[in-house]
């Protein structure tokens, strides 16, 4: 979570999907990353009955932040 917070993402653990791990054995480790749609979509017409569109400017801003976050996480795991 620290890697996400370091790049300005709001990160939580087991919220709002608390208890999702109960379907797995205690030895199972899993990572689920959910990006809120406002991070990469144009929400200017969110209440209109049309399909929301990806906002390329938001996506371009997101890509290096997300890439850096995931790289940091993988680098940390590989040292363990």
Short synopsis of the structure:
With 80 residues, the chain is mainly α. Helix content is 36%, strand content 5%. It is built from two helices and two strands; from the N terminus they run αββα.
What can you see in these coordinates?
With 80 residues, the protein is mainly alpha-helical. 36% of the residues lie in helices and 5% in strands. The chain has a two-stranded antiparallel sheet. The relative contact order is 0.17. The mean pLDDT is 82.
Strand segment count: 2
End-to-end separation:
17 Å
The total of helices stands at 2
Average pLDDT figure: 82
Structural class: mainly alpha
Strands of the widest sheet, in order across it, are 1-2
Order of helices and strands: HEEH
Taking the sheet with the most strands, its summary is:
2 strands, antiparallel
Strand content: 5-15%
Helical fraction: 25-40%
- Outline type: extended
Q: Rounded to an integer, what's the Rg over CA atoms?
A: 16 Å
Poorly predicted runs are none
